[in-house]
């Protein structure tokens, strides 16, 4: 079963022991934890698997992809508008081929949304917006794992850090579909049709930390269909983060790294990259 790519790019019991998307990475003397996140969840996804709490309690510092607080600042909102919204006379209708624009209008009409509200949005933001509309229709209205633990860390006075600036993340988003905007919107329209069927499995694979399933059902089609976006959004960012992670593993301080779940599996995922460096990797079991 093929899974939605754009949807995944924006996202994701019993009393017995179960796996979860948290791993302990160790060398001979130091260790840290890596947890996979979905950036938006439903209320039913809480409480999170207990492995997250274990890793958080063990950690001296929590590391996120980016500065969570800055994402809600007025300055970042203004920058987002400047980056993802047309600032000149260009419109979405002028950017897309007539048949693609018509298909987008038909879809938005079915959701009760006038296409006029998207005329000034660039295709990368349109794709994300289409996914967010479907997520909200399916009840994904709660904060994700990263925002949840950022709030807890702030309340506990625990140190936090991040790999990328919000501006860098914004540039990654803006690059989605750049140069092939028409194909990107057509794919996004097909993508959102898959969300209802893919969501349960994605969230299940995330909770269980099933790397093989996450790779097979969520990454392979992404890699084949959009190799450039895959490389920019996943592979290159993982490689950029590796020196920081290795530096963390050289100190006695224990970090809990929280990144999008799809940064973790695959041959260029963080766990394979760390395994190739000789680190010991152990999946943390959740007891609930």
TrEMBL record:
Keyword line: Signal
Signal peptide as annotated in the record: 1-19
Membrane-crossing segments per the record: none
InterPro entries given in the database record: TraB/PrgY/GumN_fam, YbaP-like
PANTHER family reported for this sequence: CYTOPLASMIC PROTEIN, CYTOPLASMIC PROTEIN-RELATED
The protein's name: TraB/GumN family protein
Any Pfam family the entry gives: TraB_PrgY_gumN
Superkingdom: Bacteria
